[in-house]
C-alpha cells in the first residue's frame, strides 16, 4: 500500500517524473536533442546521424551541428540530411553508453541516431565541419565506419 501511494504521488520505483525530487532539473543531466515528432519524413544528419522529421530540422536545425545553419533553409536541410539510413538507436546518456562510444557520439546530445547513413556531404560542408570542429569529416556508412571522429 505504501509503494502504491508513493507511485501515485510520483515517487518510488517505475517510470515516474523525469524531474528529480524538489522540482528542479538536475544540472548534471545531459543536454537533449529533439526527438522525432512523427514516423514519416524522417531524416538523419549526415554528420552526427541525429534523426528527426524534416520539418524539425527546418524549424530547429541539428542540435549537434548548429554550424550547418539549417534553420528555415530547406535546401541546406536536404543537403545536410539523408532520408536513407539503417537502424535507429536512442542514446540517453552519451557519456556512459557503449553504443554512443561505438558510434563515436560520446560528445553528442541525448537523442535518436541512425546507425548508418547513405550519402555524403558536399565538399564545402566537409570543409565547414573541419574548420568548426577541428576534425576530419567521416561518415557512418553501411560498412560501419563511425560518424564523428
SSE order and pairing:
Blueprint lengths: L1 H7 L33 E4 L5 E3 H7 L13 H7 E2 L2 E7 L6 H5 L8 E7 L5 H11 L16
Antiparallel strand pairs: 1-2, 1-3, 4-5
In short:
The protein is an alpha+beta fold. 25% of the residues lie in helices and 15% in strands. The N and C termini lie far apart (52 Å).
**Range of strand content:** 15-25%
Number of helices: 5
Which ranges are low-confidence, i.e. pLDDT below 50, for 5 or more consecutive residues?
A: 1-26, 141-149
Report the end-to-end length measured between terminal Cα atoms: 52 Å
Number of strands: 5
Question: C-alpha Rg, in Å?
Answer: 18 Å
Q: Summarize the helix and strand pattern as letters.
A: HEEHHEEHEH
State the share of residues found in helices, binned by percent.
10-25%
Overall shape: globular
- Could you give the order of strands across the largest sheet? 2-1-3
* Biggest beta-sheet profile: 3 strands, antiparallel
**Taking all residues together, what is the mean pLDDT?**
79
The secondary structure category is alpha+beta
Oligomer: single chain
Amino acid at each position: 500500500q505504501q509503494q502504491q501511494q508513493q507511485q501515485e504521488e510520483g515517487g518510488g520505483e517505475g517510470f515516474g517524473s523525469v524531474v528529480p525530487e524538489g522540482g528542479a532539473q538536475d544540472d548534471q543531466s545531459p543536454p537533449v536533442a529533439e526527438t522525432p515528432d512523427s514516423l514519416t519524413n524522417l531524416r538523419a544528419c549526415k554528420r552526427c546521424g541525429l534523426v528527426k522529421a524534416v520539418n524539425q530540422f527546418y524549424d530547429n536545425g541539428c542540435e549537434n551541428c548548429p554550424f550547418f545553419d539549417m534553420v528555415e533553409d530547406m535546401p541546406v536541410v536536404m543537403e545536410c540530411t539523408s532520408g536513407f539510413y539503417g537502424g535507429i538507436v536512442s542514446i540517453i546518456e552519451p557519456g556512459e553508453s557503449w553504443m554512443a562510444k561505438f558510434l563515436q557520439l560520446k560528445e553528442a546530445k541525448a537523442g535518436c541516431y541512425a546507425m548508418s547513413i547513405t550519402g555524403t556531404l558536399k565538399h564545402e560542408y566537409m570543409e565547414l565541419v573541419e574548420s568548426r570542429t577541428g576534425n576530419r569529416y567521416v561518415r557512418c556508412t553501411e560498412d560501419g565506419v563511425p560518424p564523428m571522429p
